[in-house]
Amino acid sequence: MTAAPGTAAPEPHPVLAEVTDRVVARSAAGRAAYLERIRSAAAQEPAGPSRGSLGCANLAHGAAACGPDKLTLTASPARNVAIVTAYNDMLSAHQPFETFPALIKQAARDAGGVAQVAGGVPAMCDGITQGRAGMELSLFSRDVIAMSTAVALSHDMFDAAVLLGVCDKIVPGLVMGALSFGHLPVLLAPAGPMSSGLPNAEKARVRRAHAAGEAGREELLEAESRSYHGPGTCTFFGTANSNQLLMEIMGLHLPGSSFVNPGTPLRDALTAETTRRALAAAGDPAAAMGEIVDEKAVVNGVVALLATGGSTNHTMHLVAMAAAAGVELTWDDFADLSAVVPLLARIYPNGTADVNHFQAAGGTSVLVRELLGAGLLHEDVHTVDGPGLSRYTREPFLDTSGDGSGSAAAPVWREGPAESLDKSVLRGVADPFAPDGGLRVLHGNLGRAVVKTSAVEPDHRVVEAPAVVVDDQDELLAAYHAGRLDGRDLVAVVRNQGPRANGMPELHKLTPALGVLQGRGQQVAIVTDGRMSGASGAVPAALHVTPEAAQGGPLQQVRDGDRIRLDTLDGTLSLLVAPEELEARQLEARESEGRESEGREPDGREPDGRTGVPGAAVGTGRELFAAFRAAVGPADRGAAVIL
Fold first, then answer.
1. Is CB count within 10 Å lower at the N or C end of the chain?
2. Is 167 annotated as a binding residue?
């Protein structure tokens, strides 16, 4: 079903076409307004460099400390590239960015241009804050990053931008912010994954053993350190590596650049080439970021996520990124595409391989070739590499024909493998791991939720069991360690974890413990208005339940012992309580809310600023985000504050 190199792609699959058509129709007004805005901004740009519209004092400020580039900025028509960086050396994925600005600046000089670090954005690590109070800032950091990106680009000094970011909220935030300057060409320069460490199966075994009390902290720390051992992205297929895949398939990375390891000559050559492309694209309307990120590019991103079993976090991030470009994407679009997009990759937690194995097996070039050949991707899109997604069936290599050293070699692109080199990791459309994309949208009297099924064994895809209701993940872990969850089937209802309640922290800390129970033969599932890590795995989890409990959602009426049915086969999430009983509980809740609201501020908060929801507290910076919690939208609309 694959298309031969150089041949036209097949007609789009009927469902791909149908979903895209309705996204286009639904987005018509918003997309038109967005395009009008960025095209108007482009029309106001001067004929030469953007800084040409600045007054002398303004320009002098922007060039004052630019050393060898000062004369270029003040007296030449050279284009200027903004560098927006998420560098810090606490995150392994972002530590390589320390050296990128110098490399980018030199590449710009060599190409007759200039580059400046326009600003930095925060970059927090969910792996470090997992289970800690700081995790309650994590999702909101995405919108902070978007605003920080906009501040960085606001100086009218720049003709293009290169964004440096990799991990969970950072890439979506960078994209959302840069789309406010969508009249500029914008490329993302990835840092790449760390080299492979402890095999994922062994890491998971040690985690389960520790949760079961069979391995000590020293053994656990040794295993984790051997897994996360050097610079680069964590190698499992969580949100960070899902980000990288999406940016490539959506045409914002150079072809084949997502999973090249840091600190290698090819990585440096790709970063330099990214800079040259940004300079070359300055002033080209077709290369503007806002033109590239259109309805078809967004749908392509959804398909790539589904075909690889990517992070459930992108059911929010993709919605928010699309909205920033005037495109309205819904969970129903994910669900309908998931029904026809086959699962082509097995990368941990959906398998035992890591992203380095995926890359070695053929990576994105094979993935794009297979999906294009089946009509499951739109070929007729524009990318930072030029027109047509078929350009992304190629892989980069070093051209060492110059001096033979390879130290200053430029990248060249050649066609990638015709098929996967390791079918235990990556397969074709004719022989997929599963016929669907492994993501389901659930509906029922508990609301709407998403569930990642690609890592869930068939025996666990339908769970019906009594509820164990908690308002904090530590309550559930305490029950586990006390043995109160042993020997019985259960659905863990972890509520008041949504965006408005406490910023929607990840609940991945629960996975090892519930995995132990599942391994003992118990039927176990999670239902929550919170989210799990992009590494969500074998325990079925109905996530992002909307409306959330803090907004009066049905989760608030669930009681211990109520039977809940999570059915990923027919797409339902049901509280098995008689309708009249549920109605009585809702009435009681409304009356209670009415009594409790007396004395609150007009925005519904307590006089001291608290929401009255467990976890919406002070300390660890959480009090600074009270306005975010009050304004944030629901999960199925991207859980955004600024859109």
1. N
2. yes
Helix (H) / strand (E) containing 116: strand 114-120
Whether residue 626 contacts residue 137, with contact meaning beta carbons closer than 8 Å, is answered with no
Q: Please, are residues 354 and 200 in contact by the beta-carbon 8 Å criterion?
A: yes
User: Alpha helices, DSSP H only, in 76-114?
Assistant: 100-110
DSSP-assigned beta bridge partners for residue 398: 411
**Bridge partners, 236 (sequence order):** none
Contact 394, 372 (CB under 8 A): no
CA angle, 422 as apex, 417 and 428 as ends, to 5°? 65
- 64-122 per-position pLDDT tens digit: 999 899 999 998 999 999 999 999 999 999 999 999 999 999 999 999 999 999 999 99
Beta bridge partners of 188: 163
| DSSP element (H, E) containing 188 | strand 186-188
Pairing status of strand 541-546 against strand 447-452: antiparallel
Question: Would you say domain 439-581 falls under CATH 3.40.50.300?
Answer: no
- In a 10 Å sphere around its CB, with 0-12 CB exposed, 13-18 middle and 19+ buried, how is residue 77 labelled? exposed
Which band of pLDDT confidence, cut at 50, 70 and 90, is reported for residue 418? very high
245 within 8 A of 310, measured Cβ to Cβ = yes
Residue 388: pLDDT above 90?
yes
Q: Which helix (H) or strand (E) holds 240?
A: helix 239-249
Question: What 3-state DSSP class applies to 190?
Answer: coil
Task: Give the start-end residues of each E strand in 486-576.
Answer: 490-494, 524-528, 541-546, 563-567, 572-575
The amino acid that residue 28 corresponds to is A
Q: Is 66 annotated as a binding residue?
A: no
Q: Determine the average pLDDT of the residues in 315-329.
A: 98
- Judged by DSSP in three states, 119 sits in strand
Residue 75: count other Cβ atoms within 10 Å of its Cβ.
9
Q: How far apart are CA 192 and CA 356, in angstroms?
A: 10
Do residues 182 and 288 touch, judged by C-beta distance below 8 A?
A: yes
Domain ranges of the chain: 14-195+230-415, 197-229, 439-581
Distance between CA atoms of 110 and 264, rounded to whole angstroms? Answer: 20
Evaluate if pTM is beyond 0.85. Answer: yes
